[in-house]
Amino acid sequence: MSRKRVLIVGGTGYLGQHVLQGFSENQETTPCDLAFTHHSSPPPQALLNAFPSVLPFSVDLKSGNGFEAISHQFGPPDVVVNCAALSVPCACEMDPAAAMSVNVPSSLVNWLSSLEESNYLLIHLSTDQGVKSFYKEDDEVVPVNVYGKSKVAAEQFITEKCSNFAILRSSIIFGPQTISPVSKSLPIQWVDGVLSKGNTTEFFHDEFRCPVYVKDVVAIILVLSKTWILEAKQRKLLLNVGGPDRVSRVQMAETVADIRGYNLSLIKSVSASSVDRGVMSPADISMDITKLVQTLGISPISFQDGVRLTLEL
Fold first, then answer.
1. Tell me: the pLDDT tens digits for 105-148?
2. pTM of the model as a whole
3. What is the DSSP track for the chain?
């Protein structure tokens, strides 16, 4: 069997780098040729040094410029993992057109559809947009901001246009820093940083999520990819990808404080409604991950264990 080709779209971002690392470390069980796209040019040297056999391609997701180079130099991919997104809600509110053009992968899917004899699996990272606690995949989604609306539009587009896909609705993804450190603030590291300085900091007691450890997200992507590479059975899948724990922002901070031994009095509990963030945010988008566990046999680790691994304790 010829080696399969895997393309990571958004390979220089937080999840993208972890996915690249995951595929690189599992070449024995999932042998494949790897390539990734990046928007910034040139890509981080630390990433190129870590994965010298992986091909980088500069691609503009809005226009699709750069995809043809992948066709000629890498070939049609068998698996595409789309980690690219304009994911800062405030930025999406300020430029809805940009949010839609990046988060709805029209240029990517149009390119894939144009390839001759292309039989690919698209693994697409979406987001959590339920309207009640522990929502299931088939429950109603009601996005409250432009970011959420763009992600729902992307799900609809992929469902209509792609023959084989796995849409992963992820909650907050947390874990260790990447090989080439990303500039955005990482949730656990940020909490650890402010508490370590002895700064009293406000956290919301009424905003709930199911944070998921990054290595679990990578494991899910690897299982989906391996199954497709070995079997190539038709796949149309929508999965909630969260951790097993429903936690508030206060509980997230308390977990870090408990593990590190910080004074809990540094954590000031406030309502989300007391702060104007310039964009609406869902209050409770905790998710039911029963389908994930039953379909793939993967049980994400607890939030506490993930925090320990993140802080290397």
1. 999 999 999 998 789 999 999 998 766 778 899 998 888 899 99
2. 0.96
3. -PPEEEEEETTTSHHHHHHHHHHHHTTTTS-EEEEEEESSSSPPHHHHHH-TTSEEEE--TTT-TTHHHHHHHT---SEEEE------HHHHHH-HHHHHHHHS-HHHHHHHHHSTT---EEEEEEE---SSTTB-TTS-----SHHHHHHHHHHHHHHHH-SSEEEEEE--EE-SPPSS--SSPPHHHHHHHHHHTT--EEEESS-EE--EEHHHHHHHHHHHHHHHHHH----EEEEEE--S--EEHHHHHHHHHHHHT--GGGEEEE-GGGS--SS---SB--B--HHHHHHH---PPPHHHHHHHHTT-
